[in-house]
Design goal:
With 198 residues, this protein is α+β, with helices and mostly antiparallel strands. The chain has one domain: 3-Layer(aba) Sandwich (Aminopeptidase), CATH 3.40.630.30. The chain has five helices and seven strands; from the N terminus they run E-E-H-H-E-E-E-H-E-H-E-H. Strands 1-2-3-4-5-6-7 form a seven-stranded mixed beta sheet, with helices on both faces. The longest helix has 22 residues.
Length: 198
């Protein structure tokens, strides 16, 4: 498990000193409004210790990173990859492949700066390049419009045929092949702009 950076963020594995912030996230009503009921302090502490312990296991189950604002050196959120069994794939692929669910929580002070897109995109790149993940899945409550906007900006696929109509939840996915095409396209576009400027 590695740390990595973006222009504005340091994304590093969760450490013991992150416990207070982690517990704040999961006990705060405002932060949990589209996730679920806030946890009690005791439940949040137990969740933190499970997440921290999972980071140190050899087998990949869940990996959690702290999101640190490089300008202030403050932790502003957490994000995680949770490994999913192949049978849980919503949009199936043959042969079996490795897939994860991505999740992110950012403090309200980080809103309005496009930091979720930056953090999730960096984590996806890490998942595809370093962990050889085949698909990144996103599950969310349909009332969570912010998550839907973030996923759309990044380029996740929304397939109406695989939505679970029995719940108020949505699902989108992004495959490694899509990422490679997107990455190549963005490089090509930037190159074209540079060439045109000469």
């Amino acid at each position: 498990m590695h740390s990595f950076t973006t222009e504005r963020l340091l994304i590093r594995p969760l450490i013991k000193e992150d416990e207070a912030f982690y517990c704040y996230q999961y006990t705060d009503k405002k932060m949990m409004r589209v996730v679920g009921e806030p946890l009690s302090q005791e439940e949040a502490r137990a969740a933190f210790h499970r997440a921290h312990k999972a980071n140190n296991k050899i087998k990949n189950t869940v990996r959690t990173w702290a999101i640190v604002d490089k300008a202030s050196n403050e932790i502003i959120g957490t994000q995680a990859l949770s490994w999913l069994p192949t049978k849980q794939a919503t949009k199936a692929i043959t042969p079996p492949f490795e897939q994860v669910e991505v999740g992110i929580m950012l403090a309200t002070k980080a809103n309005g700066r496009l930091l979720p897109e930056e953090a999730v995109s960096a984590l996806m790149e890490y998942a595809f390049k370093e962990l050889s993940i085949n698909r990144v899945n996103a599950f969310y409550a349909n009332i969570n419009k912010a998550t839907q906007r973030i996923l759309k900006k990044i380029g996740f696929t929304y397939d109406p045929d695989v939505q679970d109509k029995s719940t108020n939840n949505g699902y989108q996915y992004f495959d490694q092949q899509q990422w490679q095409v997107k990455f190549i396209f963005e490089l090509f576009t930037v190159k074209e702009i540079v060439v045109a400027a000469d």
